[in-house]
C-alpha cells in the first residue's frame, strides 16, 4: 500500500510514480484547486461523517486549557476551531499548512467567526517544522499525513517539537476492515467520488488523486510501526467507521 521508491528517487502521487522533488508541488496544486470546496470535498469523501470524526478526535485528544497545540495540515481551520474552544484564552493553536490558499480560507473563516486571539497561521512543510524542540503540548494532523512526501521524516519532526509528556495524534483515512464492505467503498471512491467532484467542484482529477492517495497510505499497523520508529512511546490506534479512518496516538517520554 505504501510503495514509496526512495532508492529510485521516486514516490507515489496517487497511483502514479513521480520524482520525489515534485510531489509537494503536485499536492499544493491539488489543494489550491479544492481549497474553496474543502468542506464539500470531505463531505463527498466521507458522506458527511468527517464532522463527527473530527469532533471525536478533538474530544478525546486530552488537550487542556492553557495548552500550546500545533495543528498540521490545518488548512481551513476546522480542527483548530475545535481545539481553540478547549485551550481557552491562555492557550494557543498554531495552524500549519504547506498550502497558502488553504491557510487563507481558514484564516478568513475564523476571522469571520471572531476567532483571532490565540490562533496563529504558519505556512510550513511538515517535514521541516520551523519550531524549537519541545515547543508544544499536543501536535495534531488530520487528513494530511497521507499527502506528505516523507511521512517518516514528518513523524520524527512532530516528535521533536513535542514537550516531554506531549502527545501526537494522527487522524487519517485508513484501511477498511470488513471484507464485504471493501467493494462498496472502492465503488464509492473510484466511480462515484470523481463524478461528484466534477459535478460540484468542476474538478474530477483532484478527487481521483485523493481517493488514490488513501489506498497508498500506510494501513493501521504499518503507521503504528512508523510512529514507534520515529521515537514515540505508548503508540496505539483506534478505528472509526469500520476502519474508513483511524486515530493514531503516540507520546514523547
Question: What does this 3D model show about the protein?
Answer:
- The chain has one domain: Rossmann fold, CATH 3.40.50.
- With 253 residues, the protein is of the alpha/beta class.
- It is built from nine helices and nine strands.
- A seven-stranded mixed beta sheet has the order 5-4-3-6-7-9-8, sandwiched between helices. A two-stranded antiparallel ribbon has the order 1-2.
Short recap of the structure:
The chain is an alpha/beta fold and 253 residues long. Helix content is 44%, strand content 23%.
Topology of helices and strands:
Blueprint: E1 10-13, E2 16-19, H1 20-34, H2 38-46, H3 50-59, E3 68-72, H4 78-87, E4 92-97, H5 100-112, E5 119-123, E6 136-142, H6 151-161, E7 162-173, H7 182-201, H8 204-216, H9 220-229, E8 233-240, E9 245-251
Helix pairs in contact: 2-7, 7-8
Taken as a percent bin, the fraction of beta residues is 15-25%
Return residue spans where pLDDT drops below 50 for at least 5 consecutive residues.
1-6
- CATH topology, by name, is Rossmann fold
Name the assembly state: single chain
Q: Which CATH top level class fits?
A: Alpha Beta
* Individual helix count: 9
Tally of strands: 9
Structural class category: alpha/beta
Mind telling me the C-alpha Rg?
A: 17 Å
Q: SSE string, helix = H, strand = E?
A: EEHHHEHEHEEHEHHHEE
Global geometry: globular
Amino acid at each position: 500500500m505504501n510503495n514509496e521508491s526512495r532508492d529510485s528517487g521516486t514516490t507515489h502521487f496517487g497511483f502514479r510514480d513521480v520524482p520525489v522533488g515534485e510531489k509537494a508541488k503536485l499536492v499544493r496544486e491539488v489543494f489550491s484547486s479544492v481549497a474553496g470546496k474543502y468542506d464539500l470535498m470531505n463531505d463527498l469523501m466521507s458522506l458527511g461523517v468527517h464532522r463527527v470524526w473530527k469532533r471525536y478526535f478533538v474530544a478525546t485528544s486530552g488537550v487542556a486549557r492553557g495548552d500550546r497545540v500545533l495543528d498540521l495540515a490545518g488548512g481551513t481551520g476546522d480542527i483548530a476551531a475545535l481545539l481553540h474552544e478547549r485551550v481557552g484564552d491562555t492557550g494557543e493553536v498554531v495552524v500549519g499548512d504547506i498550502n497558502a490558499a488553504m491557510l487563507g480560507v481558514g484564516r478568513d473563516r475564523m476571522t469571520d467567526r471572531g476567532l483571532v486571539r490565540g490562533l496563529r497561521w504558519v505556512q510550513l512543510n511538515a517535514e521541516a517544522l520551523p519550531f524549537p524542540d519541545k515547543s508544544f503540548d499536543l501536535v495534531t494532523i488530520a487528513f494530511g499525513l497521507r499527502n506528505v512526501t516523507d511521512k517518516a521524516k514528518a513523524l520524527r519532526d512532530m516528535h521533536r517539537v513535542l514537550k516531554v509528556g506531549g502527545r501526537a495524534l494522527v487522524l487519517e483515512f485508513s484501511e477498511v476492515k470488513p471484507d464485504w464492505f471493501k467493494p462498496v467503498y472502492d465503488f464509492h471512491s473510484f466511480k462515484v467520488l470523481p463524478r461528484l467532484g466534477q459535478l460540484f467542484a468542476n474538478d474530477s482529477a483532484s478527487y481521483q488523486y485523493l481517493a488514490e492517495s488513501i489506498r497508498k497510505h500506510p494501513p493501521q499497523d504499518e503507521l503504528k510501526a512508523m510512529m514507534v520508529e520515529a521515537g514515540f512511546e505508548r503508540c496505539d490506534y483506534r478505528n472509526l467507521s469500520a476502519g474508513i479512518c483511524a486515530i493514531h496516538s503516540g507520546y514523547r517520554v
